[in-house]
């Protein structure tokens, strides 16, 4: 998961696979710990590949509304007021079908090219602030901007804009949905 990056040291920059990991939730801590475990278990018989997914979005039989794209789309479609805090914070997004495609590519590539490697999965141009995301959803829905208010509430420690060039050059991965 790209949440392994936590908060970027430079809000104008990007993080990539060589950037230090800064997990700030139990979820991210367990992911970072398991990445280390997989790397230590690397052997000629076991060739793990680490895929750090952008935040997923897309239809599902049971959507998760704790994910920003799904939450914002649901609330705005239903005409609900949407309060957004940390509107300036960045997140990368990727459609679930594109994430599945990356998994398939990882299984098909020769293990000597990718074994033990970490790859951010997504597209660099799909990094959005929460405000940009909400504006895109409003535009697609043709919904009134008055449904959105930006509020100050605590400081969301997650803020990361991710570079996805490594998976593009190594896997030939590109997204098909935005």
From TrEMBL:
- The residue ranges of the NAD-dependent epimerase/dehydratase domain are 1-122
Q: What protein is this chain from?
A: Epimerase
Output the CDD domains linked to this UniProt entry: SDR_e (cd08946)
Q: Which domain of life is it from?
A: Bacteria
Provide an example Pfam family for this protein: Epimerase
Query: Cross-referenced InterPro entries, in alphabetical order?
Result: Epimerase_deHydtase, Lipid_A_modif_metabolic_enz, NAD(P)-bd_dom_sf
Coiled-coil positions are none
């Amino acid at each position: 998961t790209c949440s392994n990056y936590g908060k970027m040291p430079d809000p104008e920059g990007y993080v990539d696979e060589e950037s230090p990991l800064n997990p700030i939730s139990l979820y991210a801590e367990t992911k970072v710990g398991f990445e280390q475990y997989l790397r230590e278990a690397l052997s000629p018989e076991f060739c793990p590949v680490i895929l750090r997914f952008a935040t997923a979005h897309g239809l599902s039989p049971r959507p998760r509304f704790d994910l920003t794209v799904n939450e914002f789309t649901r609330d705005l479609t239903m005409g609900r007021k949407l309060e957004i805090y940390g509107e300036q914070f960045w997140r990368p997004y990727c459609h679930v079908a594109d994430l599945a495609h990356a998994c398939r590519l990882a299984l098909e590539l020769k293990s000597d090219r990718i074994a033990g490697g970490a790859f951010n999965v997504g597209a660099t141009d799909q990094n959005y602030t929460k405000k940009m995301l909400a504006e895109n959803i409003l535009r697609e829905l043709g919904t009134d901007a008055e449904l959105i208010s930006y509020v100050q509430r605590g400081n969301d420690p997650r803020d990361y804009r991710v570079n996805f060039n490594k998976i593009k050059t190594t896997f030939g991965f590109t997204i098909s949905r935005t």
